[in-house]
Amino acid sequence: MFMNSITVLMTQSKGTINPNIYGHFSEHIGGVFYDGLWVGEDSKVPNIRGFRKALAESFAKIHPPVLRWPGGCFAETYDWRDGIGPHDRRPRRINWWYNNDHRVEPNQVGTHEFMDFCRMVGAQPYVAANMTSVTPLHIRNWIEYCNAPAGLTTLADERAANGDAEPFGVKYWGIGNENWGGGGRMTAEMCAREYLRFMTVCESLPGDMTFVACGANAHDVAWTRALMAALAEKGHRPKALSVHYYCGTAGAPQDFTEDQWYQLLHQANYMQNIVDDHRAAMDGFDPERKTAIFVDEWGCWHRDGSGPSRGYNLFEQQSSMRDAVVAALTLNIFNNRCDVVGMANVAQLCNNLHSLYLAGGEHFVETPNYFVYDMFKTHQGARQLEVVNDCGEFGGGEAFRKAAKPLPRVSASASQAEDGLITVTLANTSMTEPVEVKLSGHGGLLTGRAEIVTLAADDPHACNTFENPKAVQPTASELDFSDGGVITLPAASVTAVRIRG
Questions:
Q1: Cα 448 from Cα 445, distance rounded (Å)
Q2: Catalytic residue numbers, as ranges
Q3: Cα dist. 96→126, 173, 204, 277, 311 in Å?
Q4: Which residue range is the domain that position 59 belongs to?
Q5: Does 397 have pLDDT greater than 60?
Q6: Lesser CB count within 10 Å: N end or C end of the chain?
């Protein structure tokens, strides 16, 4: 009788899984900050220096490595000076998203508040800087303001006067965002020229910084090829190149058919093509693969209005078990390509697309996406292990035959931490059928005390709401696991197996 199997190759690895693959994104859009992350110091909602206490404490538990801010498209009209100094003197601005929701940016969260939040949760800041509507000197001054040693320059003194004498030490700086679209509607050649102009001015500052060039929208490999060629012509290879990819529009977040379940998962699985094909285009100009791919925006983009604000928070959506399986499938793809993916940032953290949290007033809830990140966190910084996946694939019928790579019946990745802990993460992509999987090692045994954590629900449409915040919760068990043991993956589920020999 055929048995589905996952074999972990204990001696074959593509390297270390960069913790930054488990990064996050927080844009000033809709309710991400107001009143999601930020409620204000005078709020009746329990807070830590203005940030929602329950959210900050929950976020810290999943060890967020990096948090991208303040955009997204918001960055393209953002002036960092609007967000420093006394709160009551900060200007209110018509922001990038005003024509969508008619909400004004109050600038209550600026550089100091964001850096405080990063310290609060243990994340590195990743600043997406404006390359569209300001000068290179404007961004250079922001970098100096953030990173100059205490007392060295007037900008460092200004930072100290605003409450932080010590530098923030921001390593990651995105130079531009979506310059093929809202960030100036540039050609790849124009983007390369502008990036070089900004980066050349900014790199004269001291410090170990990674400047991220704006890469392609989804599968636009021609953009990547043209950008890398234009940069190579000037003798430059960026340390990182961003790529954005969203999947969605396959039914509503809580109202989708079985066909739409598979349609969305096939779209999510296309992330393999996104990474592989962009990397192949980059190889012609970067054969040593010194330029990392940062997938610094990704996730499910459904129709908005399904979240608890009922459309008040722009792009806010509910997240069901379908979104959790997409998250697990995508993170497994990144783990298995850890040699080329240096960072990934799910969009977005709260009250928006593919969010980990929904919040408003006194209400706060962790979505199923949150639990996936909690289950996968032991992959961070661990040595990736190759897997042989013999669980079959979904053809999916006529609607899905254009998918470039088949959807696996079971998505899988594995790693081993320095202390020997082995983590295997699995997602059953079938909406209706459970699957039994034999789990084995090759070149070593998967034997020892095991913790098995499973995220599943009786209904794959299930989600957590303010009225029922615990509808979807992981369950955990411990047992003595022997190599070749069989585990059952419920339909539409995510499972993490952690084995300590």
A1: 9
A2: 178, 297
A3: 20, 20, 30, 32, 18
A4: 19-297+335-358
A5: no
A6: N
* Portion of the chain with pLDDT greater than 90, in percent: 94
Over residues 171-200, the pLDDT tens digits come to: 999 999 999 999 999 999 999 999 999 999
Non-local (6+) Cβ contacts of 161 within 8 A are none
C-beta neighbour count of 382 within 10 angstroms: 22
CA 284, 290, 296, 299 dihedral sign is: positive
Domain for residue 347, yes or no? yes
Q: Is the dihedral of CA 372, 373, 374, 379 positive or negative?
A: positive
Q: Is residue 94 part of a domain?
A: yes
The one-letter code for the residue type at 93 is R
Strands 474-481 and 448-455, how do they pair? antiparallel
Q: Is residue 123 part of a domain?
A: yes
Q: What is the mean pLDDT of residues 313-333?
A: 97
Q: Could you say which DSSP state residue 420 is in?
A: S
Average pLDDT rounded to a whole number, residues 439-464? 97
The pLDDT of residue 441? 98
pTM, two decimal places: 0.97
- Cα–Cα distance for residue pair 350/33, rounded to 1 Å: 8
